[in-house]
Amino acid sequence: MANLIYWIVGLAAVVIFLSGLRIVRPIERGLVERLGKYKKFALPGFNWIIPVIDRMIKINITERMVNAEPQEIITKDKLNARVDAQVYFKVKDNEQSVKDSQYHVFNYESQIVNLARTTLRNIIGTLSLNEANSGRNKINKELMETLMKETKNW
Questions:
Q1: Residue range 117-153, pLDDT digits in tens
Q2: What is the Cα gyration radius of the chain?
Q3: Could you tell me if 38 and 98 are in contact, meaning their C-beta atoms sit under 8 angstroms apart?
Q4: Which of 79, 97, 109, 133 is a Cys-bridge partner for 92, taking CB atoms 3.0 to 4.6 Å apart?
């Protein structure tokens, strides 16, 4: 009877240990929360969390491309232009950047796309149609500067 109890306790310990294992891939970083509060930063490889009490959020740190849907923009010379854009972004792999992407903004991916669309509309609205067509480098530079400034906190 005592052997059966040891087997059950041992089996329960193994199950609890295995259910707490988490694997973070090289393209991800993890945030471990204990009872809803940030606990630690998880690097690639094996990580162990306390089942039920801890939870791990994995964040992809690779560069991604998102299409900003086409939009009608009125240029400085009162002409309509239909503009679409592709936004390339990534979360930096340091602890603070990963935390900021989760805790300082709701759904950072859609926020970046909407911010890019709004900024693009503002930039092209100050240009004539000819300037907008020939000044893509200028538009890209202004867009990147604005996005970097606005997203530095998240």
A1: 999 999 988 888 888 888 888 888 999 999 999 888 8
A2: 24
A3: no
A4: 97
Q: What are 28-49's pLDDT values in tens digits? A: 999 999 999 999 999 999 999 9
**Which tokens go with 137?**
């480098």
CB-based contacts of 97, cutoff 8 Å, min separation 6? 91
| Residues facing residue 67 across a β-bridge | 86
For residue 144 the two structure tokens come to 């990147």
Two structure tokens written together for 133: 């067509």
Q: Please give, one letter per residue, the 3-state secondary structure of the chain.
A: CHHHHHHHHHHHHHHHHHHCEEEECCCEEEEEEECCEEEEEECCEEEECCCCCEEEEEEECCCEEEEEEEEEEECCCCCEEEEEEEEEECCCCCHHHHHHHHHCCCCHHHHHHHHHHHHHHHHHHCCCHHHHHHCHHHHHHHHHHHHHHHHCCC
Full-model pTM:
0.78
Residue with tokens 């991800």: 28
